Structure formats: C-alpha cells, structure tokens
Amino acid sequence: MRKVLQSVRQIKSAMRYRKDNVLNSLVRGQYFSTDLSRGGCLCKVSYNGGISRHTQSYYMSSRAMFAGVATVNNGVETGGGPLVEYERRIAEGELLDGDACQVGTLQELQRLYDQLIEKAEDCRLDKYASSDKAGRSRWLWSRLLPQSSCAPVKGLYLYGGVGTGKTMLMDLFFDQLPASWRKKRIHFHDFMLNVHSRLQKHKGVADPLEVVAGEISDESILLCLDEFMVTDVANALILNRLFRQLFSNGAILVATSNRAPDNLYERGLQRDLFLPFIATLKERCVVREIGSAVDYRKLTSAEQGFYFIGKDLSSIIIKHFQMLVGDAQPVPQEVEVVMGRKLQVPLGANGCALFSFEELCDRPLGAADYFGLFKKFHTVALEGVPIFGLHNKTAAYRFVTLVDVIYENRARLLCTTEGTPVELFENIVTISDAQHMAPRTSSRSRKNDNFDLCVDNELGFAKDRTISRLTEMNSREYLEQHAEILAKKQHPAENRAENAVEA
C-alpha cells in the first residue's frame, strides 16, 4: 500500500509539472496533400511534415513512471485514469505525441475520473452496491415521492472539429472506468433509437418519458454519448424533458459533438422549446472545446482500393463484391430493424451486402435501418454515390447518417462515386459560408450562379466529418482494424482461450 501511495504522489507531481510545460510540445508543420485520381482509382492521402517532439528529459522519464501504474480506490482496482493510459500509449508508440489540445482535454477527463472515483458511492455508480430489490424499491418510492437528486459531480461536453480525437479520448476515459459501474457508451443515433423504442413500449402510460428516464438512469448512471447532434424536431422536443429528468435522477453525461452547446439545433423548427435543454446541459456539464491543427483520420495510408471514382462502374463494384463474398452465392435477404420493420437487401452473402445508392439513401430510411443492417452485415457495397446539392439534400442527409453508422460499427464500405469525398459535398455550405460568397456584380451575372447550391447549417457542418471518415475508412489501418474485429467475432472460442492464457 505504501508503494501504491508513493506512486500516486509521484504521478500527481509529474502531472502538475507537465501541465505547465507540455504545452511547448505543439503540433508544427502539418501539410496534407490529397491525390484522388479519376478513372476508378482509390482515394489516396499522403502526410508531409511532422509533429514536433521537443520535449525535455523530465517528460520522458515521467512516461516510464506512468506506464503500468494501478491504484486501489474504495476496494476497486483501477488503471489510474485516462491521462495515465494516454501516456502509456504514447510511450509504446500507439499514439502520436505533441498535441497540447488533447492533453488539455485529458486533464478535464482526468478531473472527472478522479471525482467519480472519489464520489462513486454518492453517485450510486456501483451496480453491486445494493440489491435489485432495493433498486426497485427506490424506483417505486421515487415515483410516489419525486425528489431531485442531481449528481454531486458535473459531466463533460467535448466539442470540436472533425478528426481531433474526441471519440478516441472519450473511449479511453470509458475503458478506464471500473467494470462494476452502471455505465454505458453509445452513439447518439443509437441512444435516441433506444429512447423511441422504449417510448413505444410504454405507450399509454400517463408520462412515458418519465418512465423511460427512470429505466435509463437505473441501468446507467454514467452516460457516454458519441456524436451528439440534433437534426429533427421530434428529438429536439424530447431531449429537454428527458435530460431534465435524467439529471434529476442523478445521471452524469459525457458527450462528444462537432457543435458547441449554443449551436445545437441551430435554426431548427420550434428551437425556442429546445433552448431550456441547452441551459440545462451547460449547467450539468463542463463544456470543453478540442482545437487541433491535425485531422488524425488523415494521418492514415489510404491505399486499399475500396473507393472508386467515375461513372458506369457497375462491373467494377460487382467484381470486387464477388471477391469479398468468395464462393458464397449472393441472394436477396431481409433484415429486421426496430419495431418490427424490415429492410430488404438486394444481394447479400458472407456478411457482405450490395445496394445501389437509390436503394439505400434515396428511400425513407434512417439510422434505425442502418444500425439493423450492420447487425447482420459487416461490409456494404454501394454503387453510384452522386455529387450532392439542393436537388438531393435529403439523400445527402441519409448518406451522412449511413457513414456515421458504418464508422461506429467499424464496418467496411466499398463504393463507386461521381467524385472525391470533397467533391461530393462541394455544393453543401453553411449559412456563414454562403454569406462570404462573392456577391453578384456587373461582371458576375445570374447565369453564373450555382442553382444546385444547398445552404444548410447541419449538413454543412456534418460534411467535414463525413469527408474525414470516408478518407479514414479507405486507409490500411482502418481496414486492418476491421479485419481484426471480424476475426474475433468469427472465432470467439479461440480468442477466449488466448485471453485465458494471457491472464
């Protein structure tokens, strides 16, 4: 125990010293060149320049001390927190060094982690601390005698540009939490689908939203929601009452988003009814912006041949699809999604599904259908992704959602498109972008206007994320990770044996 306490003191001392000095290790000289050739060639991204590593000897020595440290708090062994794990991964070469923006965010995550460990009992985090019967009794009394019991710890809302590592940092934080805690990490799309499914189940109850909030907070006091976004009025109206009730039940939120809280659901229908949620969110969460000069998704080597550019490429995508399914014979299939709905798959075999763009993105489908699809398939071949604009704005929204779901499931996308990822969205702009466009003058007549220009804030912000993810999903690193995940699913017994031997 003495050694453990000594290690903890050393870590805290090093972290204080690091906080003042690590900011000198900034990202310098990033330059990305994109070579997206025509004629069915893969999207290639090369990285030139480097990341500055001008760090002092004390910094490197602290790394060695951070690695492998474990602490015991309230009888629960933990790994020391997200900052310690981050240092370990840098020391072992798993992560790049030098991003002061990520380090600052990690300090906030470490602050939250330390507070949760210290106040775990007050926050009722341990699911084994009380019996199920006691839990049901508390739930019943809370219905009869409603009481506000907000958690003594504030959550965290992380926002920033695409590829800045928000999801990685949240996952790193989540993975360090004790397994016995009532916690949940879920994509925001999936979370809202779950909420709607529960509301449907409790249809007819006096206040189904209160019951749903009670169920969610009873299962998971700590909610980690990735890619927090609000794009439709139904979710906007639900969120205010839902989270007010969740926070009242003691829930703690950790969320990532591309948008600052004040910019959520910007210019949306009936936004005035959504504004109280923003106020509640800012009251119950520390808001932290992640700024970074690096899009980490583009630091990959996109050289695999799953993104083909050109028209009339049906023969190419069918050829590659057949290579992926092997000897299996593709046949029409059916996938069950939420609330009894079914999605028709034109051709599928061996975990791979083939669609035209119209079949998957130009029909009234949504996140529920896409999540259901990837419960059965790990690869989608998509033919004929068009250039997006005003004429197909709705399809663009669906394509953005599809890419989000593919990325969340670490699935694989084989596609043929009319342009590079950047070119697909060049006609989609935010209101701010549109205001900065050159006004019409005597030399610039109306005939030069782009009539397919789509001015849409939500889609305009989402396009950068989609471009970044399409780039990463073609990288060797992403596809190797996909292969590893697939191998573990296909051979679970072998993986359990390997884990047993390592233990």
Automatic annotation (TrEMBL):
<dbReference type="GO" id="GO:0005524">
    <property type="term" value="F:ATP binding"/>
</dbReference>
<dbReference type="GO" id="GO:0016887">
    <property type="term" value="F:ATP hydrolysis activity"/>
</dbReference>
<keyword id="KW-0067">ATP-binding</keyword>
<dbReference type="InterPro" id="IPR027417">
    <property type="entry name" value="P-loop_NTPase"/>
</dbReference>
<dbReference type="GO" id="GO:0009507">
    <property type="term" value="C:chloroplast"/>
</dbReference>
<dbReference type="InterPro" id="IPR005654">
    <property type="entry name" value="ATPase_AFG1-like"/>
</dbReference>
<dbReference type="GO" id="GO:0005739">
    <property type="term" value="C:mitochondrion"/>
</dbReference>
<protein>
    <recommendedName>
        <fullName>AFG1-like ATPase</fullName>
    </recommendedName>
</protein>
<comment type="similarity">
    <text>Belongs to the AFG1 ATPase family.</text>
</comment>
<keyword id="KW-0547">Nucleotide-binding</keyword>
<dbReference type="Pfam" id="PF03969">
    <property type="entry name" value="AFG1_ATPase"/>
</dbReference>
